[in-house]
Write a structure and sequence with these properties.
Length: 454
């Protein structure tokens, strides 16, 4: 509590002093139907955000030196910050299981990143983030940045370092980063004589990763090694590789992850997530072309597959997923149709078998009519039982409309119907309306949302 009060005092003093020193500023206010009130104050050297919702408070302050530092820039953020970048890979280095075949699935190289809290996020603990570097200096021989964060509430402390160098007029790009920190893990108390689990106390452990990428023209590849300390003091690793090749009409992507560690060397990530030993692979192929001259139409067809082979048991279960889709885009509309198949692969008695977990079809449409952008989406998801003696069906229909002139307005509405064995089990209606009024450097954002079971 003392740290929170100290940060709030620093925010207030900093905001008052910088407002007097710099008069170029903008202010946004936010109100919604969940009784949230928020302020977002931006000025030439930083930003201050504050949000309140029924006893919950979010604060954040950012100070930047970009406006007056030419060689090395500094950033200082404190408050209920959202962290990302390489920390996301420390928390969960596994491959993406995105259901979109148009997703690149490529893991970019970056150090820690931090941002001030959103208007409606009240779950982040109080954190302090510092960054310095020369990324904005174009004439630098090599670009670098160093950052670190301190989170006293959840006892997380980490730092990262990033390097980037371009050769041959930016045709060849080499990038690397290293991140490491001390993170807590919980006690494992489920150990017994009849399980393969190992007992360990709660404590702190080291989590780190190193990533390097090589990009030359249309080819890009990256390699990541994660290094984690087990509760028993030893170090264990996992390995990941991401590759992408772009030609005139094709985009090929291939990602793999290998975690060879057994129960004795179980990987516990920085988010206290336990990773089972596995071999993962994701493959993607996209084919794009254009037709028509006076009225061009851009068409993209895509296919992606994902496989997660459990190394703990040859029999399985092993996740196996497929998705495919097509996109049609022209100056006035954009449409897409995707198909997803999720299942589980078993290998028993030297005989493979596959069970369908779910099959879904999704249709999306957006149109562009002057300042209006109407659209709709529809999806159907089938979830059969393992013996196909029962079937659950989820159907969702949605509408959206955006107006980009003054005032900016966006609205959405959707209805979800759930059936099981032909009988309707639930109906849910959701709707939201957001409007933004802007006058010079002052904005007011109003949002209303509601969910109800019909």
């Amino acid at each position: 509590m003392k740290i929170k009060k100290l940060i709030e005092i620093i925010i207030l003093i900093f905001a008052i002093s910088t407002t007097k020193a710099y008069c170029k500023a903008s202010l946004k206010t936010y109100f919604d139907s969940d009784k949230t009130q928020a302020l977002d104050f931006k000025f030439i050297a930083g930003q201050v955000k504050f949000a309140h919702q029924e006893g919950k408070v979010n604060t954040g302050i950012a100070a930047f030196s970009d406006s007056f530092a030419k060689n090395i820039s500094f950033q200082l953020l404190c408050g209920n910050l959202s962290l990302g970048g390489s920390l996301s890979k420390l928390n969960n280095p596994l491959l993406s299981t995105s259901s979109s075949p148009f997703s690149s699935g490529f893991s970019s190289v970056d150090s820690f990143t931090a941002s001030l809290p959103s208007y409606t996020s009240f779950s982040n603990p109080t954190r302090l983030f510092l960054q310095c570097g020369n990324l904005f200096k174009k004439s630098a021989f090599i670009h670098w940045k160093f950052n670190c964060f301190y989170s006293p509430e959840d006892k997380k402390n980490a730092l990262s370092f990033y390097l980037n160098k371009n050769f041959f007029k930016n045709q060849l790009k080499l990038t690397s980063q290293i991140s490491l920190g001390i993170f807590p893990h919980k006690e494992n108390s489920i150990s017994s004589w009849f399980t393969n689990e190992f007992y360990y106390h709660q404590g702190m452990h080291l989590c780190s990763n190193y990533q390097v990428s090589f990009e030359y023209k249309n080819f890009k590849t990256s390699f990541l090694q994660g290094l984690y300390e087990t509760p028993f003091g030893s170090l264990t690793s996992l390995f990941r590789s991401d590759n992408r090749l772009i030609t005139d009409r094709f985009i090929f992507t291939l990602s793999t992850l290998y975690n060879p560690n057994t129960k004795e060397k179980t990987i516990i990530t920085s988010s206290d997530k336990i990773l089972e030993n596995c071999l993962q692979c994701r493959f993607g192929l996209q084919y794009k072309y254009k037709t028509g001259k006076t009225f061009p139409i851009f068409i993209k067809n895509a296919f992606a597959s994902y496989c997660n082979l459990s190394l703990a048991s040859k029999e399985g279960p092993h996740d196996l997923r497929f998705c495919t889709g097509s996109q049609f885009t022209c100056p006035y509309t954009s449409n897409s149709l995707t198909l997803n198949v999720n299942g589980t692969l078993y290998y028993k008695n030297n005989t493979p078998s596959y069970s369908f977990d779910s099959v879904s079809i999704k249709l999306q449409n957006s149109a562009y009519i002057w300042a209006f952008t109407p659209g709709f989406n529809a999806s159907v998801t089938l979830n059969p039982s393992q013996n196909f003696d029962s079937l659950s069906v989820s159907t969702k229909l949605g509408l959206k409309l955006t107006y980009s002139k003054f005032p900016k307005i966006s609205g959405t509405a959707s209805i979800t119907l759930n059936h099981k064995d032909g009988e309707l089990t639930s109906k849910k209606l959701s709707a939201s309306l957001k409007s933004t009024f802007t006058y010079k450097d002052f904005s007011v954002i109003l949002k209303f949302s509601a969910d109800t079971n019909i």
